[in-house]
Design goal:
Helix content is about 50%, strand content about 15%. By secondary structure, it is an alpha/beta fold. The radius of gyration is 37 Å and the shape is globular. The chain folds into five domains: about 150 residues, HPT domain (Four Helix Bundle (Hemerythrin (Met), subunit A), Up-down Bundle); about 130 residues; about 160 residues, 2-Layer Sandwich (Heat Shock Protein 90); about 130 residues, Roll (SH3 type barrels); about 130 residues, Rossmann fold, CATH 3.40.50.2300.
Amino acid sequence: FFFTCAGCCAGGAADEAAVEEEELDDAGSLDFSVLDRELVDIFVEEGKDLLDHCDGLISELRAAPQDREAIAGLQRDLHTLKGGARMAGINAIGDLGHGIESLLEAVAANRTDIDRSDVHLLERGFDRLHQMLTRTGRHRDVAMPVDLIAAFEARTLGRAEAEDAPATTAAAVEVPALVDTAVASAPLSAPVPLEASNEEDTLARPQQEQVRVRADLLDRLVNHAGEVAIYRSRLEQQLGAFRGAMGELDRTNARLRDQLRRLDLETEAQIVARYQREQEQVDHKFDPLELDRFSTLQQLSRALNESAADLGGLQGVLDDLSRQYDVLLQQQSRVSSELQDGLMRARMVPFDGLVPRLRRVVRQAGQDTGKQVHVTLDGTHGELDRNVLDRMVAPLEHMLRNSVAHGLETPEQRRAAGKPEEGEIAIRLRREGSEIVLEVADDGAGLNREAIRRRAEQRGLVEADAVLGYAELDAMIFSPGFSTADQVSQLAGRGVGMDVVHNEVRQLGGSVDIHSVPGKGVTFTLRLPQTLAVTQAVFVQIGDTTFAVPVASVSGIGRISRERFESANGGYHYGGEEFALHDLGTLVGQGQARAEGQDQVPLLLVRAGELRAAVAIDQVLGNREIVVKPVGLQIASVPGIYGATITGDGRVVVILDVAPLVRRYQANPLKPIAPAAQATDRQAPLVMVVDDSLTMRKVTGRILERHNFEVAVARDGIEALERLEERVPDLMLLDIEMPRMDGYELATAMRADPRYKGVPIVMITSRSGDKHRQRAFEIGVQRYLGKPYQELDLMRNVYDLLGIARARE
């Protein structure tokens, strides 16, 4: 039994889409000269919500077939759906809903019991309803599902008690007719009450009104709220600077008042001294003060005192205003935070909303492969950012189809292995710090590592005598175009599935881990950053660089002596747990740079799942609210970069997610650079990077230089040929689409020239189609990588082609 890395996924989906498109074309369009377009659209929107709710009820019914509340809930939803379909004129949906409802009425009236086969029949019926509703939403006509209607009628009448047969027939024909007449005049948005015969409350339940908002408008509002928070932060910083200036003005006023007091004393002293001298003169008719002698100096002194008093009064006014502004800013901060929280909650959507779609994918794959499978859920009631959820829909569908087509065994194989005939796929969702952890697990046969190794050797991804661990071998399924299937079908063999999953998760800044146990199953663990517009962060400093770390990923702050940290003697104990010691400078590639004269080293204590890490920094700068801004695709795909933020003074600060940085370091620890005396014995290999993108040349060049490679760059094929005349590289990284001479032309010219024929070529391009890849291999290109690439994938290929032992080995 071969496990393939989801050739089943995108290819199967594409074939299904093509078949569906063909069926839609055959069915024709809805005739809106008879139907009301607005009414049809309203019905489709409401019908989607009703069917999603029904999917959850069917899941409950599978676990407890006699659950009367689930049956009653299905009846209510079907009643509303059927009434809306009749009003909108979509009779095919109404008739199938009526057939399903008849069976549920028989069960509710205790005329028959429901078993597992009936649950499967209900799943088929609701899946068909969903397909027809989707086609109706695209304004395509739908055919009457005669086969399913007949199946439900046969089931309703075939197992009912003989003495109740006439009553059953009447209930199946006459009662719904009365109901349809009742619902024809009911508003579409309100649920239709059930008949007084199951004995349910006939009063309609009040529903809270909802408003649909376009996703792009909501995203713009979130961004505007983030900008408001940035401006508020700058105002707060400027107000702080203003209050600092006011404090300096207060000190200046105090100094001025002291100087005026001393001036007054000096003036009075001079007046008294002058008076005493003039007493000795003959003329005593007038007092010196009466002659207004020294009055100018006195007037200036008094005027300065009055000015100082006025200045003090103005200072008091400014102090009052600053306090009022401070209160207003606090109130604005509270309202702004509530606004941001409300907008973020509006952008958060429950993962449960995706569950019915995933269940349908599993059921369809099970029907196509003839396998029995059910889905179990854990923690899926949580909410995710809509952007993350939308981008994870396709990868999740890929993985679920993979699990059914290649992970789960056939019923016969499962019986032989001592397993239940029905396989199980588990979807688990939880939060760990600032990460969202999504697990997809099955209880199938696990990865076929022998088949993976054999196919990897055939494709040249690994040498025949190379020693690979389970983790490295399992990661081969993420290679583009990798598949272990021998035949291509709708659900296998195209090899365009798991690389899509890997790339999508990587572009979100997440990671994918595989845990496979032969005969027991496989678990895929997806770790995704929790995208928030506004969050609290700890600002830390390494050397001259400032980083922000989300508070959600930090469990505490600690300190350790420099001597103990440098000796790396043991870990750090906190709260009864042991945290492994790491250095943030090393994790981000800046090296250890402890502050001068620092006896105690600050530590960020990080807890994420099973990970416990105490990360050393130079300084903790404080905690503040930040607005998370997205970064470019090439930067966002680097593990550990959460985003960026703009501080109040306009500086851009990178936001780090420390847990992925620690995991990457543990998987590939950096070796210390060899001493210069030893390095002179060996010349660094030369790698030529040929790409018309300046960013790609710089990013790739820095990665290679960080791994101690010498780098040469060229903008296109012509410039590369000129550089080749100067020095032949040991390896070339080549793009396809370039001006003057593209990658195919350059590779062809090199393979035709004896001087360059032996240079290994790794083609790195955004063209990931089979046609482009096949042409590259025909020319003589050794490896083919898609953009954006993972640093670990690139360096693994570089080391393998150059025959150099990897740093971590």
